[in-house]
Amino acid sequence: MANSWRRERWDSLRLLTPNWQSRLPGLRYEGPDPDGYMTAGEVAEFIEHFAKVSGAPVRTGVNVTSVRQADGGYHVTTSDGEIFSRTVVVASGACNQPSVPALRDAVPASVEQLTTFGYRHPGQLPDGGVLVVGASATGVQLAAELRQSGRPVTLSVGEHVRLPRTYRGRDVLWWMDASGVWDQRYDEVEDLTRARRLPSPQLVGTPERTTLDLNALAAAGVELVGRWAAVRDGRALFSGGLRNVFSLADLKMERLLGTFDEWATAEGHDGEVGPPERFAATRVPESARLQLDLASGEIAAIVWATGFRPDYQWLDVPVVDAKGQLNHEGGVVASPGLYALGLPVLRRRRSTFISGIEDDAREVIGHLARYLGIS
Ligand SMILES: Cc1cc2nc3c(=O)[nH]c(=O)nc-3n(C[C@H](O)[C@H](O)[C@H](O)COP(=O)(O)OP(=O)(O)OC[C@H]3O[C@@H](n4cnc5c(N)ncnc54)[C@H](O)[C@@H]3O)c2cc1C
User: Is the dihedral of CA 269, 273, 277, 279 positive or negative?
Assistant: First the structure.
């Protein structure tokens, strides 16, 4: 239980969602720090506590090795025996494995490579410079931590989602929640495929509620380079379009903040929050390097923070597409009696966050109950 929060996270990780947003059906955070951010250990405890209060018959340490369709339902093979069930809910998560581009194979052997599943703390890396690849939540957090430990850090930046930690005096995720942006439904989203692939926002949960955008990282001495495009003769080649990438992220952030402002005015909340704020544009480095010699010794280690992917190798039902994603319509999988929960924008924008499960589960389980004829 809470396996990924115990085994697959780095030591300093905290949730980027505030404590009050960690809610599961029938369980709310009731501790002393509703605006704080849980450590990985606290998340594991929260989930364990939920297992107790929900009274669900949880079996821990059991691995599902196969699910196949038979006899009007599913035969499930586990490390602890066989189960037959008319329905199965796939809640195995979207982040079972790190997603690393094939570029990794062209990196000289002298450079140590880690993914976020293997990374725990800066002391684990060999002395020297670190190239962090990916500037979403994980990448910016690890770049900041590695830089703080005194190492030279280069951050390779592709498409990203910029957000301030607080806006008009409130946590930015309060705005996402209160304004209804997070509740936008999957069938209202303009480009669902894109929305489901959107990188995580550049946010970190710290007691000081600091904003961790690229300006903050550059000010801390992190060198920004473009998207890693290729390796040639032991050299990493980066795209040159940083200006465009930065202005797109700035523009999207401005638009989102504008949506918050409109909502606050329309709903009469302007008096309860601070005045509208606008943030400095992301500064483009004067001459971003376009290549880096990986064999020179400058870079001792690469940390791949290039996202995660699900693992459905155990699912022996033809419902996984060529890209390894589960085919489903709002959590209803195209195989009778098979359902999914906990995937990006499954039924609403908040689906992949802890607070997203409650409404999604109610709707998906409603469908399941109708399928079984018990509602
Ligand atoms: C790095 C990171 C940071 C995150 N930060 C936040 C945050 O700040 N706030 C927030 O609300 N959410 C956050 N999330 C998302 C959140 O942790 C959950 O992933 C999400 O809520 C979905 O929950 P889940 O239980 O569906 O999936 P998961 O949490 O991924 O759990 C799936 C479980 O299924 C198990 N499993 C997989 N395959 C099998 C199998 N074949 N047999 C048996 N068990 C299997 C896994 O081991 C895992 O324990 C973060 C996720 C990651 C990866």
Answer: negative
Q: What is the spatial distance between Cα 85 and Cα 73, in angstroms, rounded to a whole number?
A: 6
Spacing, Cα 25 to ligand 1 middle (Å): 16
Query: What was the pLDDT predicted at 6?
Result: 81
The residue whose C-alpha atom lies closest to atom 34 belonging to ligand 1 is: 92
* Secondary structure E strands in the chain: 64-70, 73-78, 81-85, 88-90, 97-98, 112-115, 129-133, 153-156, 166-167, 170-171, 223-225, 228-232, 235-238, 291-293, 299-304, 308-309, 328-329, 332-333, 338-340
Do the Cβ atoms of 335 and 317 come closer than 8 Å?
yes
Whether residue 17 has its Cβ less than 6 Å from ligand 1: yes
pLDDT in tens, 132-161: 999 999 999 999 999 999 999 999 999 999
**78 pocket-lining for ligand 1 (C-beta < 6 Å):** no
- 117 CA distance to ligand 1 centroid (A)? 13
9 C-alpha to center of ligand 1: Å?
A: 11
